């Protein structure tokens, strides 16, 4: 068992304070929760007679149209990723994780001793790990492709899909891949990105009842119980989801138009044109490594972006547009454009 770095996490954590223009944060900022219909008063929480975990599980179950027995709360999305991989480590040491992908989807199974397969072979691969929307491209997964993976997988397989950014598709009602095949599919989500509640550290796993029971037995070895206050706030946020949808849609659609103008006016780059995420993958054709390019952008123009290498890709970077301040985004992109104009000659 190795201990690889979570390079993306440390990159952002170490460099955020150095950057004037932060284009690396993939989650929306925390809104005014009172305006969102969410009570945060701690005395009200203490006076509540509700079981916070049960209330949260019911809120997620109602959101998805499943049973609360299909839901396990987690400490954010990161614990969910670790728990699912730990659960599958008892059953297999082979995983198919297509790239580019969110770094922990690759590094956690590697840390647990999995062999990461370059192609999907259903005869030996019991774990498939995906992100929807894909992180870092921001593109929705093809339903035809996901169905083919599920259909080809064996009965003991797990098709694990992290749905952290799926809600940025702004559907009237939220969908989940879990309902496509409740025996094989496991999904996870978090309130950190779409809802902007990163400080509360609330996530969840949705799976069949037997898998949830097994995952729940593993959880005490990692974190024990979740914070009751966070779950109490989280349940309210989910039940007031429509307000969060309106806010996120307003911010992301406006910002995407600004980023599109940046891409069109900046020579020698391309982009993934995301359909369901507040970020995109910017690609370039120069031979310089993405980590070197991003470090130079930070040093020369004080712009923080995330190297594609951290996602298993090359010659590119993830650019996030979660800004509530339109002017800050415009200024950051101007500085980035100046840098790229010099660096990619």
UniProtKB/TrEMBL annotation:
GO terms assigned for molecular function: pyridoxal phosphate binding
Domain Aminotransferase class I/classII large as annotated: residue spans: 50-327
Organism, as annotated: Candidatus Marsarchaeota G2 archaeon OSP_D
UniProt-listed SUPFAM superfamilies: PLP-dependent transferases
Matches recorded under Gene3D superfamilies: Aspartate Aminotransferase, domain 1, Type I PLP-dependent aspartate aminotransferase-like (Major domain)
Record's protein name: Aminotransferase class I/classII large domain-containing protein
Pfam families named in the record: Aminotran_1_2
